[in-house]
């Protein structure tokens, strides 16, 4: 009897791995479809007769909507579960891109951007889902692979979009293709084996949990849940029909289990109750002691955006490099960034899972590389800085997301990731303004300002990391 149960538990990682690989495909297709459209938007707005000012206002609509909706949708995914929230985001995003393919005026264009701006949070929910599926020690590796898969899609998408744009009605064809891709993604998410996974979630020794379960396995009597906290070594199975969906709120009155429980959560519960729960989660995040991580994210986001803000223009003015050659350099850097996602796991293992130290070192390295680019006397030095810059920023983004999840806890992973995206959206709004002001001084002004911001983030980390408890682990916020 126990042998059969052990065999069943040993099959769980295989099923879990299948879901994770499907999520990688969703991430790849998501950014593949989006990157087909992004390079064509400004040209299409101009084709519709918009002035540069109107085009700028229309272009900022998406960012503003993302700023306010990221945290709300992330918190909503914690309340109703990942499956339904992810399906909703994919279907409404598909609707938005379909409407974009029908836009023959500025008004229709703006209307089409509204559902996309409000609900294009599929990648954030995928990351929250992955954090539900894997243990804390496996999370950086899985997140790195997901970022790599998504980045590959973002690299390949513009190639296909550019090819379609050369044909008559190319923008509309690209829009409908993107809408079809999101529909396919929704179908893939719907067909995922949600009920097959039974994932053990513990704070330590997660890699050996099957060995712990099999010798001392005791079936839970009468289907009741028992607490599987890290204080005990015995962890109990739960009947499949009682397992809630990842990201769903635990049942009131029952202790949290060490297992990720799965069940279907109805979307038909009163909207006011859903919104009240989401607001409560957002308030807890806003009043937690995680301001330092969010501030570091903001400073680094603006610094990185300043690095790229006038890259093409600066290369032409400083080194007389044609935009075509600069485009090759940007593609080279983007490709390295995608490949760097596969390095996150080995690097975190090298650091002994000490994520605060890794974040500090990647921040210092990014600061130094931005300075190297700003002071570069030759193109060769720019190539060197771009090479390592792509790697350091990829590792840094994964580190800060992992630390946010460590401190906030998995019960609010969607809210935390959404809040992080909102902070990044603030950076997207501020970076163009700061870049324009800095360029009034010098072509090297934006990256020079980026150096100061990255240096500020590094200094902040040096002061704050000693206040985080544990050996390389942050103290947990009570969310």
Please provide a written account of the structure.
The protein is built from 17 helices and two strands. The protein is globular, with a radius of gyration of 23 Å. It has helices at 2-47, 52-80, 82-100, 106-119, 122-133, 139-165, 170-191, 209-213, 271-286, 291-309, 311-319, 323-340, 344-350, 355-374, 379-408, 413-439, 445-464, and strands spanning 199-200, 259-260. α1 runs antiparallel to α7 (170-191), α2 packs antiparallel against α3 and α14 (355-374) packs antiparallel against α17. 71% of the residues lie in helices and 1% in strands. It is an all-alpha fold and 479 residues long. It has a two-stranded antiparallel sheet with strand order 1-2.
Task: Provide the descriptors you would attach to this structure in a database record.
globular; disordered C terminus; 17 helices; 479 residues; 2 strands; mainly alpha
Give the uncertain stretches in residue-range form: 4-11, 197-265, 470-478
Q: Roughly how much helix do the residues carry, as a percent range?
A: over 70%
Helix count equals 17
Order of helices and strands: HHHHHHHEHEHHHHHHHHH
Overall 3D form: globular
Which strand order spans the largest sheet, edge to edge or round the barrel?
A: 1-2
Q: How would you describe the oligomerization state of the chains in this entry? A: single chain
End-to-end separation in angstroms reads: 39 Å
Strands, total number:
2
Radius of gyration: 23 Å
Mean pLDDT metric: 78
Q: Work out the strand percent.
A: under 5%
Largest sheet geometry: 2 strands, antiparallel
């Amino acid at each position: 009897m126990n042998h059969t149960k052990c065999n069943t538990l040993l099959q769980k990682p295989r099923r879990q791995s299948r879901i994770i690989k499907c999520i990688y495909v969703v991430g790849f297709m998501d950014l593949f479809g989006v990157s087909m459209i992004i390079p064509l938007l400004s040209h299409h707005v101009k084709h519709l007769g918009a002035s540069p000012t109107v085009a700028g206002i229309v272009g900022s609509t998406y960012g503003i909507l993302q700023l306010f909706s990221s945290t709300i949708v992330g918190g909503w995914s914690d309340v109703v579960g990942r499956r339904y929230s992810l399906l909703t985001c994919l279907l409404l995003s598909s609707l938005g891109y379909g409407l974009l393919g029908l836009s023959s005026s500025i008004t229709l264009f703006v209307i089409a951007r509204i559902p996309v701006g409000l609900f294009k949070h599929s990648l954030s929910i995928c990351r929250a889902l992955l954090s539900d599926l894997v243990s804390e020690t496996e999370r950086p590796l899985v997140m790195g692979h997901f970022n790599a898969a998504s980045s590959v899609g973002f690299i390949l998408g513009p190639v296909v979009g550019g090819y379609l744009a050369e044909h008559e009605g190319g923008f509309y064809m690209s829009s409908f293709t993107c809408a079809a891709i999101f529909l396919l993604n929704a179908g893939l998410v719907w067909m995922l084996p949600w009920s097959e996974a039974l994932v053990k979630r513990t704070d330590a020794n997660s890699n050996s949990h099957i060995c712990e379960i099999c010798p001392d396995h005791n079936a839970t009597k009468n289907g009741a849940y028992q607490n599987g906290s890290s204080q005990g070594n015995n962890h109990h199975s739960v009947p499949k029909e009682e397992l809630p969906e990842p990201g769903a709120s635990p049942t009131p009155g029952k202790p949290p289990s060490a297992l990720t429980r799965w069940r279907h959560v109805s979307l038909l519960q009163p909207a006011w109750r859903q919104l009240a729960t989401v607001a409560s989660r957002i308030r807890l995040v806003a009043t937690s002691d995680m301001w330092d991580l969010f501030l570091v994210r903001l400073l680094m986001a603006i610094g990185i955006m300043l690095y790229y803000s006038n890259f093409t223009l600066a290369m032409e003015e400083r080194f007389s490099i044609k935009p075509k050659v600069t485009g090759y350099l940007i593609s080279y850097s983007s490709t390295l960034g995608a490949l760097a996602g596969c390095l996150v796991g080995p690097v975190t293992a090298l650091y002994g899972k000490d994520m605060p130290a890794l974040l500090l070192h990647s921040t210092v390295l990014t600061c130094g590389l931005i300075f190297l680019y700003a002071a570069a006397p030759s193109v060769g030095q720019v190539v060197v800085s771009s090479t390592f810059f792509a790697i350091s920023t990829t590792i840094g983004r994964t580190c800060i997301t992992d630390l946010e999840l460590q401190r906030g806890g998995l019960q609010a992973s969607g809210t935390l990731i959404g809040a992080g995206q909102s902070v990044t959206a603030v950076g997207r709004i501020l970076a163009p303004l700061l870049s324009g002001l800095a360029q009034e001084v010098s072509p090297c002004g934006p990256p020079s300002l980026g150096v100061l911001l990255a240096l500020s983030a590094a200094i902040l980390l040096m002061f704050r990391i000693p206040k985080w408890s544990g050996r390389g682990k942050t103290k947990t916020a009570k969310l």
